[in-house]
User: Fold this.
Amino acid sequence: MSLGRQFLLNLKIAIRSLCGFRLRSLLAVAGVFLGTLSLVIVANMSDSLTLKTEKEIEKLGKNLLVVKSKKVKKFRFMRKLFTSATTLTEQDAMLLKSIEGVEDVMPATNRLFPVRYKDRTLNNILVVGVTVDFPRIRNFYPATGRFFTKEEDRALEKVVLLGKTTAERLFKGENPLGKYIYIYRAPCRVLGVMETKGVDATGTDQDNQIIMPLRTYLRRFVNKDHINMIYVRVRNERLIPKVKSNITELLRKSHRIGTGKEDDFEVIDPKDFLTLKTEALKIVRTIGRLAAAVAFVIGGIGILSIMILLVNERRIEIGIRRAVGSHKKDIIGQFLFESTFISVAGGALGVVAGFLLCVMIYLLTPMPFAISVPSLILAFSASIVVGISAGVYPSFKATMIQPIEVLRE
Assistant:
């Protein structure tokens, strides 16, 4: 008999046998299906979330470190308050340029302000004061209009660039270029609208903010000489840990922070966010794999119970086959085929359903598309292993049936 005809015969026997235990067969298939589905979804969602985090870090800028003022404790009227330190200055930014490996430095500061255009008012919009190097360092450019110049920064011009979302909320489709908006009570001319950037690794919505010259911000809006942020671009990614350490050492010396005293600033490597999220994703991935393993075990137990029932129900069939010349390997092959058929059915359904569900999630959410072919192969392979493992004992049990005993029955 050819292999093709043998396969079709085994398939026909398997389907006929399993139809006698429909409910148990469906439960066994469901167990393998859920295990495969869990593996596919966990693997692909984890890859997608990792990719999303990497993209958020890229939005902040390449090889970037962020120095931020730290929250410090202050006592006022016998009460303990937390406020941002006021020790970070433009002079500190100039100092950081002397560190080996530092390519660019940009001081910046921000605060929430009410913003108005005609009869439309937006409360608590983040207004950011930056230098002319902002587009190059942050890789964030105007989509329409232009960025402000050094002359406008030096002359304390009240000019601004709007984030995409802020422009849409304020102007409702009207062209904002050249128009005046009021930040608090000060009229500011709109030079341009920034490109769409989304939320960065620090959680800031870069499309819902207003950018203006740093000197204008400090002199005309807050009348202060301290800043709360310095962006430092490092020449090479490998130098980031060393530069980070040197920044901490230099600023502690500049701020006269004694040994054992707490820093009044923090140096943030955006890749630290990736590390934290990766650790969290590892936990989620592990829990997902455990859930898949439990589902596979349940499916395997279901297949095992069905196959034992099938062996007991088909004692006469097995005995007759042995009597007419079937070898033990034929009996083993038949029952392994049937147990594998159940698991392959559940695995195939799980892979297809998992793939379609992932695609649906990617289409309905802003998560990046990430389908891992190895994860699909792994999930399907696991279902086959479960089927073969669950069929080993019943198969050998079937070979123990003696034709003479069956004929006596």
Residues 63-269 form one domain. The first helix runs from residue 3 to 19. The chain has 13 helices and twelve strands.
